[in-house]
Amino acid sequence: MSRPADRLRVAMQKSGRLSDPARNLLKQAGFQFRSSDKDQLFCYGDGCAVDLVLVRDDDIPQLIAENVCDLGIVGRNVLQEKALELRGTAHAGLQELMPLAFGGCRLSLAVPNGLDWRGPSDLDGRRIATSYPELLGEYLQQQGIGAEIVALKGSVEIAIKLGKADAICDLVSSGATLVANGLKETEILLQSEAVLACQNTPFGDGRDALLADFLARIDGVMKVQASKLILCQTGKRELDAVLRLLPDAVAPVISPVWGDDEALNVQALCTSAVTWQRLEAMKSAGARGLMVLPVEKLLA
Ligand code: ATP
Ligand code: ZN
After folding, report:
1. Residue range 63-103, pLDDT digits in tens
2. What are the boundaries of each domain within the chain?
3. Which of 12, 54, 73, 105 to mutate to test the pocket of ligand 1 (most atoms within 8 A of CB)?
4. Ligand 1 within 6 A of CB of 102
5. Which CATH class is domain 105-191?
6. 5-38, pLDDT tens digit by residue?
7. Does the C-beta of 18 come closer than 6 Å to ligand 1?
8. What CATH class is the domain 227-294?
9. Does residue 170 line the site of ligand 1, with CB under 6 A?
10. What is the assigned CATH class of domain 8-102+194-224?
């Protein structure tokens, strides 16, 4: 199916864990939409050349692979599973363009608490239930483990209780669901988060320029989200020690303090997490009056 060359069509989850953060990301990047039908499955870009298609997350990679959509916001777990499934077919060639820093989780193996776990080879000859048969199959092959994969669409965590499997391979975030089902996480197969996905070949038409603009805006939002402005004072002798705790600061501004020859003002834009531990370390190194401010817009 051919796609109009003057608009980008982005697929995202209609409702679920990724839908609100994906909507917010697009909103922060300045894209606005209006629904075109009563089911609200298609949203036209309002004053922008980007349209939205709202679907189940599992359908997103296939829609991209078949050129129905140009881009998608989807979990790396879903994207990689589909990419493996489509390997060697006419629709191969899905790729991850950019991680989006939300929807974080991991695809992990878990076994009953009571099982004495020595390593992945314990799974030899066992049955493993999963909704990710391709990713699990690849892992088992790499590890040289001969286990049977029991492919299930959902409710993987109860497969053991139902006698359908000896272990599971499922998505984990806090681990609370595993604990509630008497399971323990043993191996991580994949660290996942929401990503921007597309095909690995250029469109060869006007969409390439639209994609470049789209990526630049999303990248700008991601940088702002990660950025914090740190303000503090310190003594001249402590300045080096304080700056060593700001390795990600882009050209920090150091200025004198009125009426105090020994003190300096420090202003630093940091591009990675500013944790309490980091602030406490700065205080111990001689920083005073520490203040961390969010950044609203950045134009380099
Ligand atoms: P849909 O109706 O669209 O098929 P779903 O039930 O398959 O929805 P969600 O549960 O909303 O999907 O999860 C969507 C994505 O969120 C997952 O594919 C994964 O990338 C991410 N995610 C983050 N944390 C978790 C978690 N604890 N469990 C499952 N998915 C998670
Ligand atoms: Zn799904």
Report:
1. 999 999 999 999 999 999 999 999 999 999 999 999 999 99
2. 8-102+194-224, 105-191, 227-294
3. 105
4. no
5. alpha beta
6. 899 999 999 999 999 999 999 999 999 999 876 6
7. yes
8. alpha beta
9. no
10. alpha beta
